[in-house]
């Protein structure tokens, strides 16, 4: 019986999720479910112009509105800020970083830029009052294209810089790379467009700031991925001492990077709650989210491969031109650089040159969106590999095999070291699931008979660099903070255990998986472990959740904390049983005196540590241990994803008919949770390939800023995503685990686009922009035919 | 202000509402039933789905006055005698939720779907839940959960 229970919840078991009971019964604590006595509502007045001088803000009518409490223009609050909103990653010394205040004061720089704020007694009254704010705008031409923005005569987003160029950052290059290109048998040069995406977590953002004016303390509840980083940075921006600022991320309804941010509304709520002495709540509407929450991607990618005639790639050269949007938010400039190391993909390549130019445009700022830089990198290299395969008339699978890195650890051309992997293993498994040869036969038959439904097969043999990150490397890259993570295990006297993690979930199942590991390590019941997170008062140390770091780093910290608990318990047990520590053996929560049946458990040690009646000399009472872990390397998942599409050559409609994901994320703590992460990530990657794009018109209006217009896929658009795994354990992780939160999104997009192009190969179509809409596909076929 | 009477999860409420007040905000802010979430402002996402006289509706697109004299079931009213409804149980067992924000609406839509199609195929489930968006799961486990609940 005990064995069965252990199988159901131990490491490697699909333990039932602890999170579900409250989420399934309507008892979740999302920010909009919270309220406070005397609470007032905030609404932000936003610019309808992409670029305009603010000639005046007339608040007279708003201040006379029913239920109004206060109204302010950006200029009126200008002197309230102790620092601009944070930008934590000045990637070069000469980066241009405009001061970004929570509300614009003299110029609005994108549609959605906040210019005034109103506070009223209810949600509806705040909206009503916001509509009474009269802003006089003097429109200025807008820049919305990254390449146009760099032209000499371009309109300037920030006049003070005299240019829209934000920074240029590069690695690699030099004569060696030039020579590899000069000596190459084959060179291919490709240009891709990564369209702008709207992350769209299902819960829009929201904040509730509760002040205590007498003491100067504020608690901010926010739908955020990063309560700890928010606390540090908003202490700086608002001037509230960090010691008096508590940030709580309650239940958070999805993030995907969009909530890896410190937003104007958080600063406004804190400052105005303190000024007015009342709790302030703001809940973002979906259409507001489309312009006020950061976007992802948006870059032009130029990639060249040098190769031998038998398909061995020798060098990769990459140049990116990336839209920053109107301001630099927390890691806006660094986001494309998170891909800088992996544009060589899973391949053994000698020469590498990477350059990235950041450019200001009159659009919502860009920043991290699931995968952040690495989906873009994977898209470019995987599409370029297919282009090379076409040129050399090689099967794309064969070309990949000829170039795979096969020996580990492997130092790649960009300079980092991949700790482990087996890229052929996941490719083999994917081909087996696919029935590759049979599908190619069917494809040939359809091509032969000129079928109007053509099949395409697309591959993505991706790698991923995640688990952000070794602090020393972050420092070398000029990122402002570290990449460590903290965990505390508190063994309570009655036998239950509290786990504190500095990572902050928003759907990833930390409550479940962290409990599984602690239960396993300390021999306590899965149901006896509670995982606490997302509250800077409860869990003071943390670097939060992004970049697939919770399992890769947070769980490593937890394992080290468990080791410390065991070590202290061992001293207590040795003392209690009057033996030497070396005479004890430990297994799953129980110490045994070697060769005897004398035992004592961690739980018993916890009780002894609590009453402290008889502890070893010098040992502190209570059993609670904290570990702070700084990783020595990144985490390196990899795998093979395959998309099979059917393209209607008469209408251009693309149907994704099969999708296979074989991932290697090392040791798996909870297979069901890992499958779920992969499937959800794949859906987002597929959506970029086929449906999603934030479309701006030439004067800077977002034309599809609602869920009625922006095509987040429903169940009806997607097939069942078939998942499997291969396992190479990470030598750098106590469990051998690697990150998994972003693999699907990183891998999927090129697999789908490669499949579409494979289907269109008979027509000679070699390029298509994303999303591959029926119109784009239809036009591509038509143009190729003419 | 208008007087309405609605029965929510078997409890009758008499309320004064503004003509513009949406059912979802009456549920959430007047009755404290915050299980029903709001995910969009264009009737696109389905997070706010509830049953109105047994039919699934998006409560962000129903005026409270339209619900006068009607019976509403929300996610809070689905469990019976402290036991989760088979659909809730199936979502739990099949890992049909991650962040849980779309979940109340998705569960209500799925309950309604099975009332109309007690034994739907995978394709019928996918089409039947077209009006409910989930950004986390890729829907694979949601479909499995509905299949499981249909088998109960």
Summarize this structure briefly.
With 786 residues, chain A is an alpha+beta fold. With 152 residues, chain B is of the alpha+beta class.
Fold and architecture overview:
The complex is a heterodimer of chains A (786) and B (152). Chain A has 786 residues and is α+β, with helices and mostly antiparallel strands. Chain A folds into three domains: 2-27 and 484-629, Aldehyde Oxidoreductase, domain 4; 34-140 and 205-283, Aldehyde oxidase/xanthine dehydrogenase, a/b hammerhead (Aldehyde Oxidoreductase, domain 3); 378-468 and 636-785, Aldehyde Oxidoreductase, domain 4 (2-Layer Sandwich), CATH 3.30.365.10. In chain A, a hairpin with a 5-residue loop joins strand 13 and strand 14. The longest helix of chain A has 28 residues, at 550-577. The N and C termini of chain A lie far apart (71 Å). By secondary structure, chain B is an alpha+beta fold. In chain B, strands 2-1-5-3-4 form a five-stranded mixed β-sheet, sandwiched between helices. Chain B has two domains: 2-77, Beta-grasp domain (Ubiquitin-like (UB roll)); 86-151, Orthogonal Bundle (DNA polymerase, domain 1), CATH 1.10.150.120. Chain B contains five helices and five strands.
